[in-house]
TrEMBL record:
Biased segments, Gly residues type: 52-64
Family stated for the protein in its record: Belongs to the TMA7 family.
Superkingdom of origin organism: Eukaryota
Name recorded for this polypeptide: Translation machinery-associated protein 7
Organism: Clupea harengus
Amino acid sequence: MSGRDGGKKKPLKAPKKNAKEMDDDDMAFKQKQKDDQKAMEALKAKASGKGPLTGGGIKKSGKK
């Protein structure tokens, strides 16, 4: 009954998973994801050079 028993117990560490063998479908999927990521970064860089799309100024409600 010492003071060190209280609190949440640490879970046991799970053993590391071995790197699974990737077949051609997995490799193609990873490559496609990398290509999509690069394309998105290029589009973000292109879009960041321009100002905001809305140029309306202060928005007003329909009420008077």
